[in-house]
Amino acid sequence: MSQHNTHALPSYLDPGHLGPWGIYLEQVDRVTPYLGRQAKWVETLKRPKRVLIVDIPVELDDGTIAHFEGYRVQHNVSRGPGKGGVRYHQDVTLSEVMALAAWMSVKAAAVNLPFGGAKGGIRIDPRNYSRAELERITRRYTSEIGSIIGPHKDIPAPDVNTNAQTMAWMMDTYSMNQGATTTGVVTGKPIALGGSLGRVEATGRGVFVVGTAAAEQNGIPVEGARICVQGFGNVGGTAARLFYEAGAKIVAVQDHTGTVHNASGLDVLRLLKHVEETGGVAGAPDSEPLNADEFWGLDTDILIPAALEGQIHEGNADRIRARIIVEGANGPTTPEADDILNDKGIFIVPDVLANAGGVTVSYFEWVQDFSSFFWTEDEINARLERMMHTAYSSVAGVAAQHKVSLRTAAFIAACSRILEAREVRGLYP
Ligand SMILES: NC(=O)C1=CN([C@@H]2O[C@H](COP(=O)(O)OP(=O)(O)OC[C@H]3O[C@@H](n4cnc5c(N)ncnc54)[C@H](OP(=O)(O)O)[C@@H]3O)[C@@H](O)[C@H]2O)C=CC1
Ligand SMILES: O=C(O)CCC(=O)C(=O)O
């Protein structure tokens, strides 16, 4: 390693500052020995390209002024513009947004989309604010990050607690500031604004497609398979419904309001309605409540974490009895837990592959916006399925070649693509 790389890291890049960014750095370290001569560029992956922290001052409905902290991080743009969602959550930190941006770089490259990785967030509990307040916060945030986003620079999308309406406000604000309607600046928009059919369900559908492929590879018929799902929002709710419709039994679901269980299988359509009406899974029809920790010890065929990072850790990994884990969430498994699960022989489909369906249909949306020519939902779902199958087979091929887990294989494939692009682009303007 060159002596220049031994300079002290900026504090926010220090692996000693644990948190999601530390987890990502450890994942990169684990894959570096497999990168061959491209390992010389690996430091590129350990530093985000651009980090923007913004203050968002907003007048609340009662006339007081509140300030929120917002972020937009572009981790890597070697293969194309930055791409990644915007999260509204009270626990959002810079470390988290940096890790989420980096996982976007890896994800886009693992599926071979022409994007780099980016992510954004606002440290806010959106449940405490009115729709009008959220609109003002979103518009101010968009203006503040407006100089670094754009259809050829960085394209936001929905993530936790953001949705098509959030994207509509972002698109409108960006367009007003540009003086031209610019639909391609965000994806996950409403259909009336150039959104793509199939985007809302795309991440959950991708989880279902690769989860089904993993089940087949492990000799588990989806029909009758027992499935536990943590997080019952966009990703977890859709994945649960698709597995349910394919004949699987969703035996337990957990969100913030509680954990519900039925060994014969929950009625997922009624559960979705219950969540819509009550705001959470607690008290779902035909279910018994479990305490939150019991969820992790349930005997199940497939476990789908679809909430937040770090949910599977040293403290609960040993109790997990699933045969397959399909990571709908970003970063749900810590590296320590990953080792425990691998030692137990549990087959893991990693986040950067399992939840890539969302960004894949975002790519379709971006392409449709540029050509102003829109595809049918069947075409979109068929293309999504094809791309997810291709990515799954190619990562499984790398795993077999190197005798490594799917996570390591996905990182090998993705980091090699990113660093090859970095190398051939050269360094100087
Ligand atoms: N939306 C997308 O297209 C994509 C999302 N992802 C990832 O998928 C995950 C879920 O995102 P998404 O479904 O969009 O988000 P949503 O906001 O739609 O849903 C999040 C779900 O997780 C639950 N949850 C949050 N924290 C906890 C917790 N500590 N314990 C149990 N449940 C919890 C929420 O429950 P409650 O409402 O009770 O808080 C809610 O059911 C995130 O990691 C996200 O980054 C990845 C790729 C694309
Ligand atoms: O659709 C996108 O562009 C990004 C979705 C996202 O944030 C993710 O995959 O984690």
UniProtKB/TrEMBL annotation:
Q: Does the keyword Oxidoreductase apply?
A: yes
Record's SMART domains? ELFV_dehydrog
Domain Glutamate/phenylalanine/leucine/valine/L-tryptophan dehydrogenase C-terminal as annotated: residue spans: 196-426
Q: For this UniProt record, give its keywords in alphabetical order, as a comma-separated list.
A: Oxidoreductase
Question: Example GO molecular function term?
Answer: oxidoreductase activity
Q: Which PANTHER family match?
A: GLUTAMATE DEHYDROGENASE, GLUTAMATE DEHYDROGENASE 1, MITOCHONDRIAL
* Family statement: Belongs to the Glu/Leu/Phe/Val dehydrogenases family.
* Name under which the protein is recorded: Glutamate dehydrogenase
